[in-house]
């Protein structure tokens, strides 16, 4: 039996008295695209942000390639990782944000080459060659020397995807990557993501794009109220959901003719 | 009486009689002042011209520039460290930075200069050693504290306190998303600070730092109380001998105005160049600038 790339066990997260995640179990196999859907406030984004410890989980365990995330055994005692130890693990989990968060003082290409150069010590010329190849992949080699504010939202998000890929992560997390975009710009970002999926990138995508989830995802997770209500094959869930709550959600969000 | 068609005529603009009257008054005052400057024999323009480029005045000018540059460089360096301490999770670091800012913003620079200069009365010698243990190196305070070093200490430490608050506000104006994005790329804390946060923060802090530099240039005139030959003191030395008080003060005034004008243009040029990048919002910076709560709990991303 092969080990899943990412395994989450009994993950919990509370903000003060408010429990946002109440025991999440999931696993992601290498090469799989997993989409997480659910109403707002269901804990989808928090789940994603706990995986790379942007939020510190309240309880439970996360394993990336079998290695516990954010903690480390020394003998039989478990220690929290320092920020800089955590950084090594974060490199393996790229993240694409709803708000892009490109570095405004750097060009598209510099955004992409920054981390490989200063974190990995990649020689500049090599990082730039790889960065150009990534810009090519997301369809905008002609924008390499533009600053983020000179790019449209869709272009910025594609640069952000290229920036994550530059660190050659084992897993790419997408936190509502198209929710901040004008409707006519959503397509270009989804196309870039679809292409990545076809190339075998392992992706965990929190999204509202049900058609993307249906067509691209290998696995669909429906969350509500901090728990996973239902998960499985996207087409099966969308055509015949087993839970009443899934059915209600799908009735609200699915376009008429699926 | 037949009116023309409304489409054929332009309306007569509003006359602002009050404003026109005020302008005339101001112009009259300006002319009177100019005439007075030109004709008042007490100014002694020939004497002004004679001393404008006198060696002692020029070396005083050099001292003023040197003090300004050194005080700003040292002050900003300490200010960056203090700003980062203010934003630390540790209450001890926050408290130490807060205490520095509280003290050096609270004590007038003139009092500080005199205090630093008289440090020997408080501590006759300075030493490095093991705390509560033996001393390893000892210096005579009077040898270390010269008028120059006392001036630099007083001016730079005060500047550090002001710069710290501005830089802190600048750092806080950089969005948290930038820090999170850096973290997900595997950057360490110091890499994030040096490569991502500070370059953006310093961009919005440039205009207030420019203002501070102009203030500092003027504050350096305080060092004349320590008999340090800056621009003002050099002028004073001359008129103490020749009693040409007003002409020499005119010389100093003109030089100060020249320097502040140059600095103002330089600041505008830098600001203009930086505005081509896209700094975080100025409003957010201004909102945070006056936030002086001590021991604030920092809500930072956890890791």
From TrEMBL, chain A:
GO cellular component terms attached to this protein's record: plasma membrane
Subcellular location: Cell membrane
One Pfam family from the record: ABC_tran
Residue ranges of domain ABC transporter in the record: 6-250
GO MF annotation terms: ABC-type amino acid transporter activity; ATP binding; ATP hydrolysis activity
Protein family (similarity comment): Belongs to the ABC transporter superfamily.
The name this protein goes by in its record: Arginine transport ATP-binding protein ArtM
Name of the coding gene: artM
TrEMBL record, chain B:
Any Gene Ontology CC annotation: ATP-binding cassette (ABC) transporter complex
Main location, first listed in the record: membrane
GO BP term (any one): amino acid transport
GO MF, one example: transmembrane transporter activity
Residues in ABC transmembrane type-1 domain copies: 61-267
Keywords per UniProt: Amino-acid transport, Cell membrane, Membrane, Transmembrane, Transmembrane helix, Transport
Compartment annotation: Cell inner membrane; Cell membrane
Its job: Part of the ABC transporter complex GltIJKL involved in glutamate and aspartate uptake. Probably responsible for the translocation of the substrate across the membrane.
PANTHER family: L-CYSTINE TRANSPORT SYSTEM PERMEASE PROTEIN TCYL, MEMBRANE COMPONENT OF AMINO ACID ABC TRANSPORTER
Quaternary structure (record): The complex is composed of two ATP-binding proteins (GltL), two transmembrane proteins (GltJ and GltK) and a solute-binding protein (GltI).
Name the UniProt record assigns to this protein: Glutamate/aspartate import permease protein GltK
Species name: Flavimaricola marinus
């Amino acid at each position: 039996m092969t080990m899943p790339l990412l395994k989450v066990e009994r993950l919990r997260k509370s903000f003060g008295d408010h429990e946002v995640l109440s025991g999440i179990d999931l696993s992601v196999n290498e090469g799989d695209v997993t989409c997480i859907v659910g109403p707002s406030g269901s804990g989808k984004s928090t789940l994603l942000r706990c995986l790379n410890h942007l939020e510190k989980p309240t309880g439970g365990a996360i394993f990336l390639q079998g290695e516990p995330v954010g903690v480390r055994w020394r003998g039989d005692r478990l220690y929290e990782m320092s920020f800089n130890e955590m950084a090594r693990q974060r490199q393996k989990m790229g993240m694409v944000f709803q708000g892009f968060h490109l570095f405004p003082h750097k060009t598209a290409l510099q955004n992409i080459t920054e981390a490989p150069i200063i974190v990995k010590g990649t020689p500049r010329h090599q990082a730039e060659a790889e960065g150009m190849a990534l810009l090519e992949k997301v369809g905008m080699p002609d924008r390499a020397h533009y600053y983020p504010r000179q790019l449209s939202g869709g272009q910025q998000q594609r640069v952000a995807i290229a920036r994550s890929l530059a660190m050659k992560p084992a897993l790419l997390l997408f936190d509502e990557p198209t929710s901040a975009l004008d409707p006519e710009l959503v397509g270009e970002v989804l196309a870039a993501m679809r292409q990545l999926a076809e190339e075998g990138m392992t992706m965990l995508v929190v999204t509202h794009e049900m058609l993307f989830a249906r067509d691209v995802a290998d696995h669909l997770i429906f969350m509500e109220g901090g728990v996973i209500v239902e998960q499985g094959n996207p087409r099966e869930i969308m055509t015949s959901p087993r839970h009443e709550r899934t059915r209600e959600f799908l009735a609200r969000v699915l376009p008429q003719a699926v | 009486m037949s009116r023309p068609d409304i489409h054929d005529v332009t309306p007569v603009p509003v006359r602002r009689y009050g404003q026109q009257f005020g302008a005339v008054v101001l112009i009259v005052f300006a002319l009177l002042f100019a005439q007075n400057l030109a004709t008042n024999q007490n100014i002694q323009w020939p004497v002004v011209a004679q001393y404008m480029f006198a060696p002692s005045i020029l070396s005083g000018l050099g001292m003023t520039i040197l003090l300004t540059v050194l005080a700003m460089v040292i002050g900003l360096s300490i200010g960056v460290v203090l700003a980062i301490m203010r934003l630390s999770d540790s209450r001890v670091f926050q408290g130490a930075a807060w205490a520095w800012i509280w003290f050096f913003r609270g004590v007038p620079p003139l009092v500080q200069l005199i205090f630093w200069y008289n440090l020997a009365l408080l501590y006759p010698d300075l030493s490095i050693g093991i705390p509560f243990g033996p001393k390893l190196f000892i210096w005579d305070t009077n040898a270390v504290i010269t008028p120059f070093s006392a001036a630099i200490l007083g001016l730079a430490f005060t500047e550090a306190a002001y710069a710290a608050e501005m830089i802190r506000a600048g750092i806080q104006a950089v969005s948290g998303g930038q820090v999170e994005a850096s973290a997900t790329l595997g950057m360490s804390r110091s890499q994030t600070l040096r490569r991502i946060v500070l370059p953006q923060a310093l961009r919005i802090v440039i205009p207030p730092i420019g203002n501070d530099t102009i203030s500092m240039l003027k504050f350096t005139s305080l060092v004349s109380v320590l008999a340090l030959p800056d621009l003002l003191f050099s002028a004073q030395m001359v008129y103490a001998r020749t009693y040409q008080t007003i002409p020499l003060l005119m010389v100093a005034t003109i030089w100060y105005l020249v320097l502040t004008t140059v600095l103002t243009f330089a600041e505008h040029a830098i600001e203009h160049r930086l505005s081509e990048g896209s700094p975080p919002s100025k409003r957010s910076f201004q909102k945070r600038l006056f936030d002086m709560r001590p021991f604030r709990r920092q809500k930072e991303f956890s890791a």
